[in-house]
Design goal:
Radius of gyration: 27 Å
Mean pLDDT: 85
Organism: Dyadobacter fanqingshengii
Shape: elongated
Keywords: Cell membrane, Ion transport, Membrane, Transmembrane, Transmembrane helix, Transport
Protein name: Bestrophin
Strand content: under 5%
Number of domains: 1
Order of helices and strands: HHHHHHHHHHHEE
Strand order of the largest sheet: 1-2
InterPro entries: YneE/VCCN1/2-like (IPR044669)
Number of strands: 2
Low-confidence stretches: none
Largest sheet: 2 strands, antiparallel
Family: Belongs to the anion channel-forming bestrophin (TC 1.A.46) family.
Length: 303
């Protein structure tokens, strides 16, 4: 997750260094040709690249807006995961009760809450196509780990275990039917959030749309030096680099935001959020073993 402050220029322009190098070489080549061969008959009026640049600007603005909407939706979903995880823990702590066997009930409650912590980590790693088992083994029993082997998506298996325990609590009389319905509604919201994340992950941003904008942008860059060379002379190259650099940065920003679950600094900080959920749920359980704080690397948190 990128922080608001201290983002180095090296990181920003490192994303477009090859594009800037190409533009600089191309600009120098056009300027040398104009100076040495005095070719003025192929100059292009600035109105042509201006109109094309305006069209590309509108397309990039629309694409950036769509990419940001995907990123913001992902963040909203994980905000709902935080709220529903806290709700689940609260319901488990205060709705499930058996005055005749409090020790068994306490173990039952702790098992469900720890499994919810595991679910958050499993979902985060699953969205990034990583094996979640090393991260969740300490939160679930060996028997439950074995049962998860039957599931390709471990977070789905963990929700099933939640549902099984809720049903067992109803049969044992630890909750009444109305309480069980409320607890199941929280599980339903978690499943809904899980499905929304998977939809974003599996829905590819239209490649043809990205390709057309990319080709139009390169065509604009090829035309732009012919319009700038007569206006700026030897200053054409730095002006060209500044203008094209702005376009490339906007395009790169949209590319990074459109996929919020790819384990990049611009991603939704799912593991950081999962650690915060773990901290809150363990405090609700009066557990003293808090998760390790996420290290900060200058301008972003380690995801």
């Amino acid at each position: 997750m990128l922080l608001k402050k201290n983002i180095p220029i090296k990181y920003i322009f490192g994303k477009i260094k090859y594009e800037i190098l190409f533009v600089a070489i191309y600009g120098f080549a056009i300027e040398i040709i104009y100076k040495n061969f005095n070719i003025t008959e192929i100059s292009i009026p600035m109105t042509v690249p201006t109109v094309l640049g305006t069209i590309i600007s509108l397309l990039l603005a629309f694409r950036s807006n769509q990419a940001y909407d995907r990123w913001w939706e992902a963040r909203q979903i994980w905000g709902a995961v935080v709220n529903d995880s806290r709700t689940l823990a609260r319901q488990v702590m205060f709705l499930i009760d058996d005055p005749y066997d409090p020790d068994q009930i306490d173990g039952f409650k702790n098992r469900i809450i720890k499994r919810q912590i595991a679910w958050c980590y499993a979902l985060a790693h699953g969205l990034r196509k990583e094996d979640p088992m090393p991260a969740i083994e300490k939160y679930v029993s060996a028997e439950e780990c074995d049962s998860l082997q039957d599931y390709d998506n471990k977070h789905v298996g963990l929700i099933q275990l939640h549902a099984r325990d809720y049903n067992n609590a109803l049969k044992q009389g630890w909750v009444n039917p109305y309480q069980q319905i409320e607890m199941d509604a929280t599980l339903t919201r978690l499943v809904d959030s899980m499905g929304k994340c998977e939809r974003i992950k599996n829905t590819v941003f239209p490649s043809t749309y990205s390709l057309y904008i990319h080709l139009a942008l390169h065509f604009f860059i090829l035309l732009l030096p012919f319009g700038l060379v007569e206006l700026f002379g030897f200053l054409m190259v730095p002006v060209l680099i500044v203008i094209t650099g702005c376009f490339f940065l906007i395009e790169k920003m949209a590319i990074h935001l459109q996929d919020p679950f790819e384990n990049k600094p611009t991603d939704t900080p799912m593991l950081t959020i999962s650690r915060n959920i773990e901290r809150d749920l363990k405090q609700m359980m009066r557990d003293k073993q808090m998760p390790v704080m996420v290290p900060q690397v200058n301008y972003f948190y380690v995801l």
